[in-house]
Amino acid sequence: LTMAMFEDADKFNRGAITYEALKSQLEKHGGLLENLSISIDRWLVPLPQENVVRKKQKKKPLPHQLTAPYIKNNYVYLSFLAVFTLINVGLFISRAIQYRKSNGFVILARACGQCLNFNCAFILVLMLRQCITFLRTRGFTAVLPLDQHIYLHKLTGVAVAAYSLLHTIMHLFNFTTIVVNDPVINANNYTTAEWLFTARPGLFGLVGGCANPTGIALFVILLVMFICSQPFVRRGGSFEVFYWTHLLYIPFWILVIFHGPNFWKWFIVPGTIFLVERTVRLVWM
């Protein structure tokens, strides 16, 4: 229609039309002028408010966890997560500052180790079922996320796995590249294998020399527990695998006590409460 109109107005085939020629065409076709006016009006009228809102929502969707209703309904849980994160950050930074004069491998390994002291003890606190039930029945859910303790246990488990991986890698680099070549620390010329798998050097750990071999054993145990606690194992008809491998927490904590010379200070209170709970449960059974 546009081309036909243009050709009719451009009688001399110049490829352009004058204002008067356009006006003549519009006067000749009155219905065309009316339809053109309606189209222009539609271009200028703003979209309905409902459509604007929908477009905005599609353009910038907020994650559910950042919406006001979610924050209002879960402020206790979110506050707890914030405190948990700040504790980990504070422990990491303070330990890194303490070892700032060491090489980078040692700094990262020690910083992760300090966070592991806290998290390996805290993960047990989250499974003190009798204490959690006691606090819940007395209204402490108003200030503590007691109903989310299982999820927080899983979250702490992920933190333990991540810190352990970095802690192990950094120590491996440190011992294989720095310690074995240090004339003071390795004055007796122990091999890398002796440093990692035996207690012969007599350094590091609650009992001198036990840190590295217990560290290797701990990493293997943690790897098995972490893999077997994944949803595809628990929900895939293999809950027994999850249950029995999770009992490795007993040798895990025993080895951690010998691995880290200061871990027992973090573990003694929750560990004692856990033993009391288990004893009471066995008596009641």
From TrEMBL:
<keyword id="KW-0812">Transmembrane</keyword>
<dbReference type="GO" id="GO:0042554">
    <property type="term" value="P:superoxide anion generation"/>
</dbReference>
<feature type="transmembrane region" description="Helical">
    <location>
        <begin position="105"/>
        <end position="128"/>
    </location>
</feature>
<feature type="domain" description="Ferric oxidoreductase">
    <location>
        <begin position="124"/>
        <end position="256"/>
    </location>
</feature>
<feature type="transmembrane region" description="Helical">
    <location>
        <begin position="241"/>
        <end position="260"/>
    </location>
</feature>
<protein>
    <submittedName>
        <fullName>NADPH oxidase 5</fullName>
    </submittedName>
</protein>
<dbReference type="GO" id="GO:0006952">
    <property type="term" value="P:defense response"/>
</dbReference>
<keyword id="KW-0560">Oxidoreductase</keyword>
<feature type="transmembrane region" description="Helical">
    <location>
        <begin position="203"/>
        <end position="229"/>
    </location>
</feature>
<dbReference type="GO" id="GO:0016175">
    <property type="term" value="F:superoxide-generating NAD(P)H oxidase activity"/>
</dbReference>
<dbReference type="InterPro" id="IPR050369">
    <property type="entry name" value="RBOH/FRE"/>
</dbReference>
<keyword id="KW-1133">Transmembrane helix</keyword>
<feature type="transmembrane region" description="Helical">
    <location>
        <begin position="75"/>
        <end position="93"/>
    </location>
</feature>
<keyword id="KW-0472">Membrane</keyword>
<dbReference type="Pfam" id="PF01794">
    <property type="entry name" value="Ferric_reduct"/>
</dbReference>
<dbReference type="InterPro" id="IPR013130">
    <property type="entry name" value="Fe3_Rdtase_TM_dom"/>
</dbReference>
<dbReference type="GO" id="GO:0043020">
    <property type="term" value="C:NADPH oxidase complex"/>
</dbReference>
